[in-house]
Amino acid sequence: MSPSDALRFGVKSEAIEKAPFAEVVKAVGEILPASSDRAVVSAPTSGIVRLARGIELGKNVRSGELIASVSAKNVSGGDINEAAKANFQAAKRELDRLEPLLKEGIVTKKDYNEALRAYEEAKSAFSPVAAGGSAVAGIPGVISELSVNDGAYVEAGQTIAVIGRNSRLTLRALLPSAEAAFLPKVATANFRPSRGGEMVSLADRNCTILSSSPTGTTLPGYVAVYFSFDSNGDVVPGMPAEVYLIGTDKAETLAVPVGAVSEQQGENFVYVKVDDHAYKKQPVTLGRSDGRRIEVLSGVNDGDSVVTYGSTFVRLAETSTVVPEGHSHSH
What we know:
By secondary structure, the protein is of the alpha+beta class. It has helices at residues 3-8, 80-103, 109-125, 128-132, 311-319, and strands spanning 12-15, 19-33, 38-42, 47-51, 60-61, 66-71, 134-136, 141-146, 153-154, 159-164, 168-176, 186-193, 200-201, 208-213, 222-230, 240-253, 255-257, 262-264, 267-273, 279-283, 285-289, 293-298, 305-309. It has five helices and 23 strands. Strand 18 (262-264) and strand 19 form a beta hairpin. It starts with a helix and ends in a 12-residue tail after the last helix. Strands 13-12-16-2-11-15-14 form a seven-stranded antiparallel β-sheet, with no helix packed on it.
């Protein structure tokens, strides 16, 4: 393959050198929403719920935006909070009436204290928020759940909607119990969504290990490790994932990008660049992989120039009958 063809097809090579490579254990996992990025919108009082205009699944909402209003009007039994409001207002009027009379000595301190106690009790029983009947978004984000239909009856405190903003996500990795001894060594992880896509490095996503405990899951035969990380919008909660747990212990070894390795008839190999026009198909023995790079135990040497991108084009050139310019099999 001529240098111009290599450039045209985007074939790239990299001189591999021994470098620190961490111990890796493969696991299965799932992307979960972060609890801090989830807010429940609850009914402030019992009554009939009316969703605000435009409120539906997937809608972006602002913090403080009206999600629904709840009213007990025309409901059998009436609005309990209205009665509480009336009691509160009456208690406040009585307290306001007695306050100047106490200063003039017309009423006793005992009478005033009784009125004050009644006022405090009425105040605690009355909720101005409930009286307004407004259920608002506590955080900005996307409505991920709508738990009631417009016009339905709800009890005070019942969930109306759930809002998620997904600025942070959680990765739950399930490690086989036989590998539990690896838990204290876990430093970070790489994962690829099972639906396909690019490998994600948590080290690049402001990763925090939330917990790692042999009792972290109820799934028999597995232990759980939880990571919190920044979301770039490329993954969403509910996605299963292929996870590579990366340990703290590192050793000097040769490793190549996963894409540099090809497989043919059960044998793994890489292409080593011999000179500007020639590449050698080199069988290799592989070791651990962190999902991005894979350890090469034998087959290549320190300093070898290995094709890291475009190996498919080199493979096609290998089977081509075209002899690159400047080379000939005639002697």
